Amino acid sequence: MLLAVGAVIGAVLRYRIGCSDVVVAGLCVNVLIVNVIGSFVLGLFSVFSPALNLHANFALFVAVGFCGSLTSMSSFALDTSNLLDNNSFNLAVLNILSNVGLSLGALISSRAIGTVIIENLLH
């Protein structure tokens, strides 16, 4: 049940963010936005879950359900493929670098933020 609830919340949020195109420097960044948000949330969760001894069901809700439905590797791949099909090589490279780099950066930074929060709460 928690998996389904998390998935519905993630999917609805993804849909709402994708309803109107957000374009930056000629690149539609809706997929980038959801991927970065999902990576940030997953990073926080990966620190909070073990530190707070959260039940494994929370992982189904947050990591698998919510983040899994919010983020989109397939849409990222399709967007990049469409850019390549349209000979927009610079935008395709920008899309790849921004999605991978910013998502990874969001995850790493949220883990660092989560660690600081946990250390301050537990001490």
Distance between the termini: 35 Å
Secondary-structure element sequence? HEEHHHH
Overall pLDDT, averaged? 95
- Oligomeric form: single chain
How much of the residues is beta strand, in percent? under 5%
What fraction, in percent, of the residue positions are helical? over 70%
- Sum up the overall morphology in one term: globular
Number of helices: 5
Largest sheet: 2 strands, antiparallel
Structure characterization notes:
The chain has 123 residues and is mostly helical. The protein has one domain. 82% of the residues lie in helices and 3% in strands. It contains 5 helices and 2 strands. Strands 1-2 form a two-stranded antiparallel sheet.
List keywords for this structure.
mainly alpha, two-stranded antiparallel ribbon, 2 strands, globular
Short summary:
The chain is mainly alpha-helical. It has 5 helices and 2 strands. Strands 1-2 form a two-stranded antiparallel ribbon.
SSE blueprint and pairings:
Layout: H1 2-18, E1 23-24, E2 27-28, H2 30-51, H3 56-70, H4 73-85, H5 89-122
Antiparallel strand pairs: 1-2
Helix pairs in contact: 1-3, 2-3, 2-5, 4-5
